[in-house]
Amino acid sequence: MQAEKEHESIRIFENNILESLTHVHPIVPLIFWSPIAAYLLWRSFGVLDLSLGGIALSGLAAVIVWTLTEYVLHRYAFHFPATSKVGKWLVFLFHGNHHHDPKDKTRLVFPPGGSIPIMIGLYYLFTLVVPAAWIEPFMAFFIISYLTYDYIHYAVHHFPMKSPVAKFLKHYHLKHHYAGEEGRYGVSSPLWDYVFGTTGSAN
Q: Using CA atoms, how far apart are residues 40 and 102, in angstroms rounded to an integer?
């Protein structure tokens, strides 16, 4: 039997080092971010001695904020209607290449080179509104929510997703790709698509 042909990714950079940074094995975000989330949770319980109820509420807030962050980034940054050559290239770099080749397994989760500066920026933004005592558990659950998103996104493109919820998320996201890119910006949750009326014809 002839071996399956290796998938050839869209090349973005001529420089081999820069090009390699646009690819990532799907396990990398988990290896990189889960120890940070675990450390923040350990500090929340063992060092800061925060209450279980407070941590749970902080976690719930972080999950909700993540779903909104995911929606806003996907709708307004990753699908930004750029008109300049540089702007169009940046949109293609961060997300457009995924729409041109949604089956590329090396570009379905976010490389640390992109996720680290975004996470740092969001952290400093959140410190403006989240009380200092609660920023660590908040960020722990925000990171966990981000990882959940990353692996849901990977799964909807490469796994059967047979449970009712998983099947819904798979069909919902694939319609974003194959039934028009306008709308259905939620990947881990369609919540904000319903709030802002961007569900399209996802039924």
A: 33
Q: Which pLDDT tens digit goes with each residue over 15-74?
A: 888 888 888 899 999 999 999 999 999 999 988 889 999 999 999 999 999 999 999 999
Count of C-beta atoms within a 10 Å radius of residue 137: 26
CA dist 134 → 18, 57, 184 (Å):
37, 10, 32
Alpha helices by DSSP H, listed for the chain, are 16-20, 28-42, 52-72, 85-91, 97-100, 112-126, 135-158, 164-178, 191-196
Q: What would you measure as the largest C-alpha separation in the chain, in angstroms? A: 61
Do 59 and 137 touch, CB atoms closer than 8 A? yes
Alpha-carbon distance of 76 to 44, in angstroms, equals 33
Q: How far is CA 47 from CA 2, 61, 166, 174, in A?
A: 57, 21, 37, 43
The candidate with the shortest Cα–Cα distance to 155, out of 140, 142, 139, 168, is 168
First to last CA, the chain: 41
Burial 81-93 (b: 16+ CB within 10 A, else e): eeeeeeeeeebbe
Q: What is the pLDDT of residues 156-188, one digit of tens each?
A: 998 888 899 999 999 999 899 887 667 899 999
